[in-house]
Amino acid sequence: MQTYLVGGAVRDQLLGRVIKERDYVVVGATIEEMKRLGYTQVGKDFPVFLHPQSKEEYALARTERKQGQGYTGFICDFNPNITLEQDLERRDLTVNAIAQGEDGQLFDPFNGQADLEKRLLRHVSAAFSEDPLRVLRVARFRARYHYLGFQIADETQALMRNIAQSGELQALTPERVWMEWQKALDDGYIHIFIDALAQCDALSIFCPELANIWPSEKQSLEAQIDYGRSHDCTPPCQFAQVMQPLDAKARQAFYEHYRVPKQYMEISEALANHGALLSQENWQAKELVTLFNELDIWRRPQRLDDLVQAYTCAQLGDFSRQALLLKAAEAAQQVNAQTYIAQGIQGAAIKTALAQGRIEAIENVLAP
């Protein structure tokens, strides 16, 4: 029984990046042996175990054979005779197929270290084409490591294009596709991820409306994302930038199909619906009250901050009236129902008085 550190931890260690999690492969062991050693089994399709102390993941070495469509149609063999090289051969990219023994020695049968030096994302074997999810994964790695100069190898790009044309991408579940979009957003380079999908004809499958306009929108989005990265733009804010060129119908279709989390949808729609108002040179108090009501800043003040951040990134920082907007919101928030109740106002009249009070508070802020 031998244990090796594998995958992303080895890759990032060699690149000098912070290692966020460690995964291990165990060669020469059985399920029963792992359980006797105190490991807890958590994998259903193939044996994955949690270490009794560290809770890090340990998987038995395995091979995979394609059986059906999609990324779940595989038969796994995890008998104790599977070698380390056989396990590494099933992996997607050479840079992810490097293992490190407990003594620190590296095992690199597919020349992943050479590709790290060349800054190339290259598939390990022709079996790459058996898993359509790898199109999204490679696009994500291209985005994550683009600042280091990484490119997708031409032969891997060709395989990605073949997968896109085969119809296999349609077998991916919407939840699994969104998970990859989410990871790309978390990494902060969503425009590179989208461009990588466009280059292999996969974007037209995941979002045809975005694919149609991507050549004309690519440069603008790149500028917005670059600005946002230097100003702590959140992933939902980045997502809002991506969605803005689409019309309402296309945005809603994307949200619904991929079951986009509510926070992402809200910021995206707030920017789409209220960006024009923020662009106006002059505001009316009633307009701002309507905006604040729709955002419900009375109970969720963070939503205005999110909108301002998204709008500021979309305008590359050109929002000279930001301070005035926030001051108007603060003034309106200080008007509360208790003031009118104390004056003896009752029932529906409270709502009317509250609305008028907020308008007057905003007018005082907007007054020259």
Description of the structure:
The chain is of the alpha+beta class. 55% of the residues lie in helices and 10% in strands. The protein is built from 18 helices and 11 strands. It has helices at residues 8-15, 31-36, 84-89, 112-118, 133-144, 154-166, 174-187, 190-199, 203-206, 208-229, 235-243, 248-258, 262-279, 285-295, 302-314, 322-333, 337-342, 348-366; strands at 2-6, 23-27, 40-41, 48-50, 57-60, 63-66, 74-77, 99-101, 106-107, 120-121, 151-152. The strands form 3 sheets. The chain has a 7-stranded mixed beta sheet. It has a two-stranded antiparallel sheet with strand order 6-7. The chain has a two-stranded parallel ribbon with strand order 10-11. Strand 8 (99-101) and strand 9 (106-107) form a beta hairpin. Helix 7 (174-187) crosses helix 11 (235-243) and helix 11 crosses helix 13. The radius of gyration is 26 Å and the shape is elongated. Its cofactor is Mg(2+). Residues 149-211 form the tRNA nucleotidyltransferase/poly(A) polymerase RNA and SrmB- binding domain.
Largest sheet geometry: 7 strands, mixed
Number of helices: 18
Strand order of the largest sheet: 3-4-5-2-1-8-9
CATH H-level name of one domain... which superfamily?
Answer: Beta Polymerase, domain 2
Any guess at the CATH architecture of one domain? 2-Layer Sandwich
> Structural class of the helices, strands and pairings?
alpha+beta
Distance between the termini: 78 Å
Protein name: tRNA nucleotidyltransferase
Organism: Pseudoalteromonas qingdaonensis
Cofactor: Mg(2+)
InterPro entries: CCA_bact, NT_sf, PolA_pol_head_dom, PolyA_RNA-bd, tRNA_CCA-adding_enzyme
